[in-house]
Amino acid sequence: MRKAISLVSAGHEIGPLKTNHSYRNISLFDYVMNELKEHKHKQMKFKMQNRVTYKDQDLVTASSTGSFILPRNLDRNWFNLLNESMLKKIRFHDLRHTHATLMLKQGVHPKVVQERLGHSSITVTLDLYSHVLPNIQKAAAEQFGTQLFGIRP
């Protein structure tokens, strides 16, 4: 298993993860896993071609010298990709919130979302994302009614 690390000090150095809940295993879609494997293969090839100047720090994304990518450079590259794709412009960190919001809207159990985000308790997740589920009471009543009476609303 890889040693988990994180950027600290406003993204200018590498350090340990913030809390024990930061260390977690999550499932990924097969397509994403295949893309990550392809990326790792390309990265290994690049490392071998540049082994004299590349200082391997075992990062998933790294600069051409092997060091971490500065947050402002990551943002610049991210916004360029968004412009090319014509997707809505959001900050890179907002992907975390988008991920949680989409899962909850699709009916994924909040406990699963909590575990994926690494929140210390489900209360934290529900406090942050309960606004996403305005019809949760109605949906719960309909699901219970369907189960109990065998009819759909």
Strand content: under 5%
Q: Strands of the biggest beta sheet: in what spatial order?
A: 1-2
- Largest sheet: number of strands, sense, barrel closure: 2 strands, antiparallel
Number of strands: 2
Report helical residue fraction: 40-55%
Secondary structure class reads: mainly alpha
Number of domains: 2
Model description:
The chain is mainly α. It folds into 2 domains: 90 residues, no CATH class; 61 residues, no CATH class. The chain contains 6 helices and 2 strands. It has a two-stranded antiparallel ribbon with strand order 1-2. Strand 1 and strand 2 form a beta hairpin. Helix 3 packs antiparallel against helix 4 and helix 4 crosses helix 5. The chain is elongated and about 70 Å long. It starts with 5 loop residues before the first strand and ends with a helix. The relative contact order is 0.08. The mean pLDDT is 86.
What is the gist of this entry?
By secondary structure, this protein is mainly α. The chain is built from 6 helices and 2 strands; from the N terminus they run E-E-H-H-H-H-H-H.
What characteristics describe this protein?
mainly alpha, 6 helices, 153 residues, 2 strands, 2 domains
Could you give the topology of this structure?
Blueprint: E1 6-8, E2 13-15, H1 30-49, H2 71-85, H3 94-105, H4 110-117, H5 122-129, H6 136-149
Antiparallel strand pairs: 1-2
